[in-house]
Every structure is written in structure tokens, then in C-alpha cells.
Amino acid sequence: MQLTLKIWRQSSAESTGFFEKYIVDNVTADMSFFEMLDMLNNDLIKQNKSPIVFDHDCREGICGTCGLVINGRAHGPLKGVTACQLHMRTFKNGETLTVEPWRAKSFKVIKDLAVDRQAFDKIMEAGGYISVKTGGAPDANAMPIFKENADEAFDSATCIGCGACVAACKNSSAMLFVGAKVNQYAQLPQGQVEHSKRVKNMVEAMDSAGFGNCTNTGACEAECPKEISISNIIKLNKEYLKFH
Amino acid sequence: MNKHQYDVIVIGAGGAGLSAVAAIPKGLKVAVLSKLFPFRSHTGAAQGGISAALGNLEEDNPLWHAYDTVKGSDYLGDQDAIIQMCNDAPDAIFDLERKGLPFSRLGNGKISQRPFGGHTKNWGESPVRRACHSADRTGHMILHTLYQQALRRETNFFDEFQVVEIITKDNSCCGVVAVKLSTGERHVFHSKSVILATGGYGRCFKVTSNALSLTGDGMAICYQKGIPLQDMEFVQFHPTGLHPLGILITEGARGEGGILVNSRGERFMERYAPSIKDLAPRDIVSRSIYEEIKAGRGIDAKDFVHLDLTHLGRKLLDEKLPDVTGFARTYLNIEPADEPIPVKPTTHYAMGGIPTDVDGRVIIDPDGSIMHGLYASGECACVSVHGANRLGTNSLLDLVVFGKRAGQHASIYSESSKLSELPSDAGYDSESFLQQVRSNTRGPKVYEIREKMQEIMMDYCSVFRNEEGMKKCASLLSELREDFQKVTISDKSNFYNYEMMAAFELSCMLDVSEATLHGAMLRKESRGAHSREDYPDRNDQDWLKHTLCYQEKGNDPTFKFKNVNLGKFEVKARVY
Fold it and tell me: What confidence tens digit (pLDDT) does each residue in B93-147 have?
């Protein structure tokens, strides 16, 4: 099939970006979206033009590197997948696709479709960890954890830090990301000791990194490739209120 | 050039690198250099589990685990290192648990465990439940937990720095040279010790489960400086890659009861490994799949078989194997609860790598001489605990256990030594390489050479190998190396020049492919993952030894041999 791509090109964070139009032929239904971009890039390289920069690595939806807004949707039109898991069979011959980077004040464009997501690190540094004491080895299974809690902690911990929640949100809020981290540790006994401090510090770091607040549109949950539930935000709010 | 000074420098921020960081005391100045953002590293893709003889569901014993690992390695693994790893395993699990890793749990609150290929009880009697897991996202959870710990430690992260050269002087390592991707500038990191944790090189092959960043960088920069690479002929092909993409379906799928079937609907593993069937080690299952395909029993007589999970039920699949079911649905439009998944072997893991001792210290000759201040751990290293074939779940264990040990030893070394002066030619080699690539004006593009290399390595140096094919491959590979001298890039800028970095990665892949291919040509026997059609039997008399491959610029590499550490477990025929 043949597609028309309108791709965001921007040579650096400081420069002005623009959409450039490309026609791609010989796209097959089995091709992944990124294989299609690879094909386009190889053509550009052959013509001595600079290839389109986009973030990607594992191409199986686990590393969290990729992130594109395709026709206005973070990670494209399908539910519960990352952009790298998207296949061309999702699209029709002759279609025009608009491809943009994540748009958020806290995620600066690096080049073309690649953005800087280090703001997430700043939030994590503020408390997204357990402060364990080093010492002797503990007894076997010293820390039994109810299966329900373990399962909920697992669900929250499936976050891959891609930033789709921020990109999908009209306020560029990172509350789903923060909520998932806080709730993961809230479910586990190891996380209790510094719980209140964690909630406060992470929320403050989120605010100072320039992320907006939640107004409950649910866009983050709808676009999250790991389908992390918005209930994590409810729990975050509850925990935050408890201590403040 | 920009200069930095640290006590310890860690290259790579996957499971091995971050385990090392976690083991370094706060008083030491540490920098982590990664070509990616840390939690994008490939440890995150590990699915099925991490083994430890916790015995949460049935009796188990670290020595059984060690026995299975030795047998799985086809007796090429070093038994002292293997026993060390299996003994350290339970503590490693509890350590991760304390750091907040959300393991899957049993009804009684204990950590859940499941069977995995080659893991047995009572010296090979029957499968045992030994693999601790977080559903099928175990690696993701380990990576994020360790990264969080590194953030807590206030580690200096240099993200998107591509290391292009190690700096050595008189058998000691005193730093590295790296290119900052966002500016193209070269930085010298001067340090007392360097820990390499750069992962594998699956991208040398056409069909692979590895991410695009797995290009053998750490191995290659050592190899270029005269450090040998050990046992490079042993590359693991995981039996269940999604056909045709090569994306991995975890062995956990068979651990949970999935079976492999051929075009006649036969559960063919019953014939190849009667006692543990579909849970035989990966090398055996991969070969069996190809034997079925060769005999015309591939599905529709094509080059794949079926992984059947339909009898497990939708509930179990969604709860215990959510990623796998997701993959089948996303990539192939297949509902695994209703229909079987087409699979074939995919390049997965490098058993070989930079030779080290159990403390991660890099070894440079058969006598065990040390390159002072240089450490390696994880997939880029060869301790060797995996020998000729790695058992599933042992890679995560390897990187947690030996990453930590490398971090501990590098700390002790750095506390007691001074920064040595940098040699005057530090960084010269990488500088001239980058300049050459930039100045080339007419020649092949990076992707053209890369695609050819991946094709010939897959065709002639994968699951089955023979003299004739490999000779052909060797001459094609040296042609590609010559072409590479003229490689040209269209992007000449300094700012995020991914094309330039791709050229560097390709140079690394060509180097490690050379070591792999020549090792495979040299080893005239079949052992573990290395299967020679022309030498189908294992030959302990001549080949129960490690190979050390040394680069000879402009010539074929040369080899030396290193003894295998035996002693505890008797070398026997490997029958399952």
C-alpha cells in the first residue's frame, strides 16, 4: 500500500519545527510502523538526506523508549500497545498519517520525534525507591505478602515510563506515572517506612518539573500502553491528603 | 576533550551495571555511562524468571541447581563459579525483595516459583519449580528496582554517552573515551576502575530477540585492545521466537504447560527428551525444531512449528503470561487461548564474552593474568557459568550475583589504588576511526553492510554449522570488513548523529561476528549451542576447554585455550 506521512521535523530544541510530507510506497500489512519508518529512513540515507530521528529500542513494547503521536493519539490508534507494536495492517492504503513527538512543556524535543524525558528521573530521585539497610541476609521468605497486594503492586509496577500519559493529557499531568509508583510501594510492607515522605516529595518534584494537574479526563488511562488504571491517581490523591 | 575523574566507572545501565552500582559504597565517586536512558536497557525485556533454590513449593537445593547448570552448560561451565552463583541465589532474591521488587506470590504470601527448561530436582529426575518471577515481566521489575536504587544513591548518570574506547596502560585500565550523543564531543573518563556491563550482540544475526542496541560494543572495545574474547562460538538460539519476527515467547509458557507440536500434531519433544520433554534446555529444543522442519514436519512444510497454549485456558494465560498473550495478539493477530502460536528459533544470548574470574576481574590469558582495574559482568562477560548453553532464568541470576561481586571488588580495588596517569595516546584509535568515517565520501551505507552481515551470520553460523558454509561466511565477512573501510554517512553533523553511532556499532558487530565465526570454525565438535553437522558428537578428549580469541589486525584471529574448572560434578553424557 501507499501512505502519505506528515512528519514533524525539528533540528534541535531551539529551532522551529515543521511538518514535512513524505510518500511511502511498498508498505505491506505485516510491516510494523517502525519497519515502515526504517524503510523511509534508508531511502533518505540513500538520497544523502538526514534520516528522521525517533526513539526506539526493544521493539516489543517493554523498554518504554518509543513514543509517537500518530493522528493525534499517543502510541497510535490501538489500545494497550506501544508505537513499536503497531502494525501497518491497522492503516488503509492511501491514508495520510500525521506523526508528531510527545508534546509537553516538561518533555523538550531533542530532534525530530525524540524528546527528553529526564523530568521523570527527577520525580523518581525524589523518592521513587525503598531505602533498604544493607546488612546480613534475611531469613527465607521473611516478608510474606498477600497475593492481592502483590498483584496490585505488580500492576502498578508495569509502568514503562514512556510518558504517553503526559502526552495524552491536556494538562500534561504526570499523575498516572507518580500514582503508579506510589501505589506500588504502598501495597508492600517494604514501602511503608518512608511512605508519607515519598508521597510528599514525589508530588513536589512533579510540580516543580512543570507537569500539570489532573482534571479527571481519563485520557492517560485510555492511552497507557500498559493499561495502568486511573485508580492509581485516586489513591495518590487519597494518600497525599492523608498527610497534608 | 572534556575530562572527568571518578573512582569507579560503570559502562551500561542494565541489570549487571546497576547491580554493581548498588554494591559500591557511598564514599566512592561513581559514574554510569549508558548509550540509552538507563531503564530502557534490555534486562527489562527478560520475561520468565530468576532461579533460586528457595524450595517454596517443593524440596530444592542449591547443589541441584548447580548440577543442572553444569549439565545444561554441556560441562563447559566452570564449576566453582556455578556453585558460587547457585549458593548466592537465595540471598540475591531476598535482596531484590527488600528493595521493593513486586514478585508474584502464592496464596500463603511466599514468593511464587515455576518450572523452567533444564531445572530439575534430585539430579535430573523431573522438573522442579525454581524460577521466581513477576508474572512474565521479571526483567522489567528487576531493572526498575535497581535503577531506583541507583537514583537513591545519587549516582552520576551520563545518559546517551556512547563509549568508544577503553584506555589501557601496562596491563591496567585507567578509563574510557565516550562520545556525547547530543553534541558529538568526545569525553575522557579517567578512573581507578572500569566495570563493563554492556550486554550481548544478538543484532549480529538477522532473526533475534535482542533490542537494536545489542551490538557487542563492550566486547569489541576490549577485543580491539588485545583483550581476548572467550567461548564466542556459543550463541544461544531461543526455541520460541514468534515467526517470522523473532520476538521472544518466554520459556515460562512451556513452564506453565505449553507444548510444541509439528504439522502432524505430534508433541515431538517426547522423542528428543523423554524425561523432561518440552522443558529440555534451549539448545536441544532449538535443534529439535529444526530437525522437525528438515524432516518436512514444519507447519505447512514451512520453517516453523506451533507452540500450543490452548489447553491452558484464557484465565491462566491472562494472569501468568500476559505479555506473551499480548504479543501473539498484537503482532500476529492470534488469540493464544484459541489457536497455537507459530514459533521458530531466534538469536537470544551470548554465552561467550570478556573472560573474567568470579569477582568480575578481566582475564587476559590462559594462566588467568588480570587486566588490573578492568571488570566485566552480565552478558558481555564470560565467567563462565553458562558454558556451552545457558539455562533459562540463569542470566538474570548471573547479572545480579556477578554484577554485585564486580561492584564489590572494584570498590575494594579503587579504595586501595591511585589514579594512574593517562597514556599520551589515550583516545587516538577512536578519534581516527570517527574521522575516517566522517571523511569518507563514496562508499556503502551502514545499513547495507549491516544487513548483509546479519544475513550471512544467520545463514551460516546459527543453530547448525558446517565447514563449507562457515568458510564461505568467513570470506564474505572479510569482504564486508573491507567495504566497511569506505563506509559513508550522509549526516555529518555533531548533534545527535545516530548515523555515526550506527557506524561505530557496526564496527563492533563486525568484530564480534569475526570472533564468533572463527571460534565456530575452530571447534570441531558439537557441544551445547554449538552444533557442527560435520562433527556431530561432543569430544571431551580434545575440546573440553575454553577458547580465547585474540584479534590480529588485518588477519584472521588467533586462539589460545583455557582449562575448564571441573571437580565437583563428573563429566557425563548429557541426556534428558
Answer: 999 999 999 999 999 999 999 999 999 999 999 999 999 999 889 999 999 999 9
Q: What is the mean pLDDT of residues B24-49?
A: 92
Q: Is the ipTM of this complex over 0.95?
A: no
Neighboring chain B residues of A137 at a CB cutoff of 8 Å: 90-91, 94-95
CATH of domain B235-348: 3.90.700.10
Query: Residues 30 to 49 of A: which have CB under 8 A from any B CB?
Result: 42, 44-49
Domain ranges within chain A, ordered by starting residue:
3-110, 118-243
Q: Which residue of A has its CA nearest to B499?
A: A51
Exposure on the CB side of residue B485, measured as CA atoms within 13 A: 6
What stretch of H or E contains B130? strand B126-132
What CA–CA distance (Å, rounded) separates B362 from A177?
Answer: 40
Give B331 to chain A, closest Cα distance, Å: 7
Residue of B105, B106, B496 with shortest CB distance to A111: B496
Contacts of A147 in chain B (CB under 8 A): 105-107, 109
Q: Is A227 on the interface with B (CB under 8 A)?
A: no
Residue extents of the structural domains in chain B:
235-348
What CATH code is assigned to A3-110? 3.10.20.30
The answer to whether the beta carbons of residues B190 and B5 sit under 8 Å apart is yes
**How far is C-alpha B518 from the chain's CA centre?**
19
> Does A191 touch chain B if contact means CB atoms closer than 8 Å?
yes
The third-level CATH classification (topology) of the domain covering A118-243 is: Fumarate Reductase Iron-sulfur Protein; Chain B, domain 2 (1.10.1060)
Could you tell me which of B532, B515, B462 has the C-alpha nearest to residue B239?
B462
Q: At what angle do helices B498-522 and B446-460 cross, to 10 degrees?
A: 20
